[in-house]
Write a structure and sequence with these properties.
This protein is of the alpha/beta class. It has eight helices and ten strands. The strands form two sheets. A six-stranded mixed β-sheet has the order 4-5-6-7-9-8. Strand 8 and strand 9 form a beta hairpin. The two termini are about 30 Å apart.
């Protein structure tokens, strides 16, 4: 059986039910690759446990950080913050053979042809504003007033950057250069914790939360960088949508309180089948 490209995000293994699900994840063949776009856990030790387990089972594991991996929480066994915490996670992943956004993008030889798998670390810049708002400051004030505030505001330290928007801008600029260097004849699979376009956030129960879900700076990236698929998490709303002819897969497991009421229970591994198009084809 040929290898498949599989994905799952938002494992949140501090919940025992989710940890058991991760313990049971298995590839369908020894050639399967696994995409993990973030939110494995808050504890670095837990992140290492999960990625070590998965990298021992799948032919290749590709990780992009979520916001929870970047939190610095009270009593953290390794209270690193900001860029230093991220680079520590990168070093840990490399020791396990896990591909990170800092590494060369691997090439997946799929049944329709090769694609470049690009794990991304971009953060957000508060530009996914709720309806009726045109600037961050009043939108953030309204979010606080309504009680819909992401925990990042308390635990995601952007050090040494002055704020999360500055860190996001730096990541977007650096990543954009790397993606532009991918040969024009190769399609991509873009793997990011946050959606790359605004559309997936429009079904959020609390629209204010969209501010912590991405950046408008990447709106044209799926088309511009020839994405045969976009893979993301963060929203905890597993589904598939298409925009400009590109499939966008939300592959979250999510919290037990979210997946337990679903008729099918917890979402498992999502099969990613890149939709390749000839260069020059319209969406």
């Amino acid at each position: 059986m040929p290898g498949q490209l599989l994905a799952i995000s938002d494992l949140h293994i501090r919940y025992p039910e989710n940890r058991r699900i991760v313990e049971e994840l298995r590839p369908g063949s020894e050639d399967d690759w696994l995409l993990v776009p973030g939110d494995v856990a808050e504890s670095i030790a837990d992140v290492e446990w999960a990625l070590r387990l998965l990298s021992g089972r799948f032919a290749k594991v590709i990780w992009a950080p979520g916001n929870h991996e970047l939190w610095t929480v009270p009593n953290d066994e390794l209270p690193l913050r900001g860029e230093e915490r991220y680079q520590h996670l990168v070093k840990m992943c490399r020791s396990l053979g896990v591909v990170t956004p800092e590494d060369p993008y691997p090439r997946w030889e799929g049944p329709q042809g090769p694609v470049v798998i690009a794990p991304l670390f971009l953060l957000y810049d508060y530009t996914f504003l709720a309806f009726g708002h045109t600037a961050k400051k009043p939108a953030l004030a309204a979010a606080y007033e309504s009680g819909v505030v992401c925990t990042d505001e308390f635990h995601l330290d952007p050090h040494p950057y002055p704020d999360r928007e500055s860190w996001c801008r730096a990541r977007v600029a650096w990543t954009e250069e790397r993606l532009a260097a991918v040969p024009d004849d190769l399609p991509t699979v873009l793997v990011n914790h946050y959606p790359l376009i605004r559309e997936p956030t429009r079904i959020l129960r609390y629209p204010e939360f969209a501010m912590w879900c991405g950046t408008t700076a990447t709106t044209d990236w799926p088309v511009r960088f020839r994405a045969a698929a976009v893979v993301y998490g963060h929203l905890h709303i597993p589904r598939l949508i298409h925009a400009d002819g590109v499939p966008h897969h939300e592959v979250s497991l999510g919290y037990p309180r979210e997946w337990k009421p679903r008729a099918g229970g917890a979402a498992g591994l999502t099969l990613i089948e890149p939709q390749l198009r000839r260069l020059g084809d319209s969406a």
